[in-house]
C-alpha cells in the first residue's frame, strides 16, 4: 500500500485483556456469499473523505481498516495515523459499520516505509510477542483477520515473513489472512515459487497492480511515459512500458501455481499527474502528483475531463491529455481509472476466476459533491462487473 501523509507517534506497549463489546456481528448475512472479494482499504488519515456510515457496502465485501504498524521489540501501534485517542475511535466505527452491514473487517498492518519495524518485530527474538500483539489488536476491535503489508519483501525477509504468517494461522486457524504483494516486471523478474509455498497460509495473495509506471528522469531507467495501472500490454510486453494488470496476473503470478481464486488484482482510486509529456509512450516528462493529491474525486471535479479525456484502446484505460497545463497540479498527461476502466478490470477479474480485487483507497473514489446515489461511481462499476447480482 501507499505511505500515509503523516505518521504519528505509535503506542509501543503490549496488549492484554479480553476483547471489548461490539455491534451485532451478522457477517455475510442474508445469504450473501461472494466467491470474489472486494477489499477496500479505508485509512485513518483519509477519514474526512468518506464517513463510515457512507461506505457503500453493497460494493465492498471486506473493509481493510488501516493501519497499525510493527514496532521494535514486537509492539504494534494503535494510532491509525491519527492519534491514540481518535485513532481507536475511527477503527471501531469502521469495524462496526462493516459488521452492521453484514461484511467483514480486516486489520491492515504495515505499509510502505515500515520495513525496519517489520524486520525487528518479526525477528526470532521478538516474533512470539509480535504475533501475540497482532492478535490482541485484532481482538480489541473485533476484527475478522489481518492483512500483512510487508514491503518491500526482499529475499532475506521471506523466511521471517512466512514464520509470522504460520504463527498467526496456527494460533487462529479460522481467521482471515491476506497479503498485498508487488507487481510483476517482466524486464527482470521471473515467476517466484515462494508465492505457491506460502499460499496455503493465506486466504488471498493480492497483487498491487498500481504505481506501475515512472519517469526515466526520476529513476525509472529506460521507461517512457506510461499508465499508473494499465489493464493490458502488448505480448510480449513493451520493454520501455512493460507493466499491466494482465502482465502481472498471467505472466507473473498464475505460473507460480497459486490458483486464480486465491489471487487478487489491485485498483487505484487515484491517478498520476505527468508534466512534460501528453500521452503514454513518450520520452521525458516527470510525475508531480499521485496518491492523495490526485484522487479520482479530485480529477473528476477539478480537471477538464469532458474536453481532455482520451481512451487507450490497447491498454484499456483512460487518460487526460493537454499541451497546456490543466488542473491544480498543472498536468499535461493524467493517468487514472474511471468507471469504464474499472468495469473492464472487474470483468477481467470475473472472467479469469480471480479471487479478489483490492482498492487503494475507497475514500479517494468518493465524490461527495455528486448527488446521493452517484457518489461512488468507481465502486458502482466494480459491483456491477465483478460481484454477483
Provide the descriptors you would attach to this structure in a database record.
389 residues; TIM Barrel; single chain; 10 helices; alpha/beta
Average pLDDT over all residues: 92
Strand arrangement within the widest β-sheet reads 1-2-3-4-5-6-7-13
What is the fourth-level CATH superfamily?
A: Glycosidases
Rounded to an integer in angstroms, the radius of gyration calculated over CA atoms is 20 Å
- Shape, per Cα inertia axes: globular
Report the count of strand segments: 13
Provide the fold topology:
Elements: E1 37-43, E2 62-68, H1 86-100, E3 104-110, H2 115-121, H3 127-141, E4 145-149, H4 158-171, E5 176-181, H5 194-198, E6 204-207, H6 245-253, E7 263-268, E8 272-275, E9 286-289, H7 296-302, H8 305-308, E10 309-312, E11 317-326, E12 331-335, H9 339-351, E13 356-360, H10 377-386
Parallel strand pairs: 1-2, 1-13, 2-3, 3-4, 4-5, 5-6, 6-7, 7-13
Antiparallel strand pairs: 8-9, 8-12, 10-11, 11-12
Helix pairs in contact: 3-4, 9-10
Task: Describe the overall structure.
The protein has helices spanning 86-100, 115-121, 127-141, 158-171, 194-198, 245-253, 296-302, 305-308, 339-351, 377-386; strands at 37-43, 62-68, 104-110, 145-149, 176-181, 204-207, 263-268, 272-275, 286-289, 309-312, 317-326, 331-335, 356-360. Helix content is 25%, strand content 19%. The model is unreliable at 2-26 (pLDDT under 50). The longest helix is centred in the first third of the chain and has 15 residues, at 86-100. It has 389 residues and is of the alpha/beta class. Strand 10 (309-312) and strand 11 (317-326) form a beta hairpin. The two termini are 29 Å apart. The strands form two sheets. The protein has an eight-stranded parallel β-barrel, surrounded by five helices. The protein has a five-stranded antiparallel β-sheet with strand order 9-8-12-11-10. The radius of gyration is 20 Å and the shape is globular. It has one domain: TIM Barrel, CATH 3.20.20. The protein is built from ten helices and 13 strands.
Amino acid at each position: 500500500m501507499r505511505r500515509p501523509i503523516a505518521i504519528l507517534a505509535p503506542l509501543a506497549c503490549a496488549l492484554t485483556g479480553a476483547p471489548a463489546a461490539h455491534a451485532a456481528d451478522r457477517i455475510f448475512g442474508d445469504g450473501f456469499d461472494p466467491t470474489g472479494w472486494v477489499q477496500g482499504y479505508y485509512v485513518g488519515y483519509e477519514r474526512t473523505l468518506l464517513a463510515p456510515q457512507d461506505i457503500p457496502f453493497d460494493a465492498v465485501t471486506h473493509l481493510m481498516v488501516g493501519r497499525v504498524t510493527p514496532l521494535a521489540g514486537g509492539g504494534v501501534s494503535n494510532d491509525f495515523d491519527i492519534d491514540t485517542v481518535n485513532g481507536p475511535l475511527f477503527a471501531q466505527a469502521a469495524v462496526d459499520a462493516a459488521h452492521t452491514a453484514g461484511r467483514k473487517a480486516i486489520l491492515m498492518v504495515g505499509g510502505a516505509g515500515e520495513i525496519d519495524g517489520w524486520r525487528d518485530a518479526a525477528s526470532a527474538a521478538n516474533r512470539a510477542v509480535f504475533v501475540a500483539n497482532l492478535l490482541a489488536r485484532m481482538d480489541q476491535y473485533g476484527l475478522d483477520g489481518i492483512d500483512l503489508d510487508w514491503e518491500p519483501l526482499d529475499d532475506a525477509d521471506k523466511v521471517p515473513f512466512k514464520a509470522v504468517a504460520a504463527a498467526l494461522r496456527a494460533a487462529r486457524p479460522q481467521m482471515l489472512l491476506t497479503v498485498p504483494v508487488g507487481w510483476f516486471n517482466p524486464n527482470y523478474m521471473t515467476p517466484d515459487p515462494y508465492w505457491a509455498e506460502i499460499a496455503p497460509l493465506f486466504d488471498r495473495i493480492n497483487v498491487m497492480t498500481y504505481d506501475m509506471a515512472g519517469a526515466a528522469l526520476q529513476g525509472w531507467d529506460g521507461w517512457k511515459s506510461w499508465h499508473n495501472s494499465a489493464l493490458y500490454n502488448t505480448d510480449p510486453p513493451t520493454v520501455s512500458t512493460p507493466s499491466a494488470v494482465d502482465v502481472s496476473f498471467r505472466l507473473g503470478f498464475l505460473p507460480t501455481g497459486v490458483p486464480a481464486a486465491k489471487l487478487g488484482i489491485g485498483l487505484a482510486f487515484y491517478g498520476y499527474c505527468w508534466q512534460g509529456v501528453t500521452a503514454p509512450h513518450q520520452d521525458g516528462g516527470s510525475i508531480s502528483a499521485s496518491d492523495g493529491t490526485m484522487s479520482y474525486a479530485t480529477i473528476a471535479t477539478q480537471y477538464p475531463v469532458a474536453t481532455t479525456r482520451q481512451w487507450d484502446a490497447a491498454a484499456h484505460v483512460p487518460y487526460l491529455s493537454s499541451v497546456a497545463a490543466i488542473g491544480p497540479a498543472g498536468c499535461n498527461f493524467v493517468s487514472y481509472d474511471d468507471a469504464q476502466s474499472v468495469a473492464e478490470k472487474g470483468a477481467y477479474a470475473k472472467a479469469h476466476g480471480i479471487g479478489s480485487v483490492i482498492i487503494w483507497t475507497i475514500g479517494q473514489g468518493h465524490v461527495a459533491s455528486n448527488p446521493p446515489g452517484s457518489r461512488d461511481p468507481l465502486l458502482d462499476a466494480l459491483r456491477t462487473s465483478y460481484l454477483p447480482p
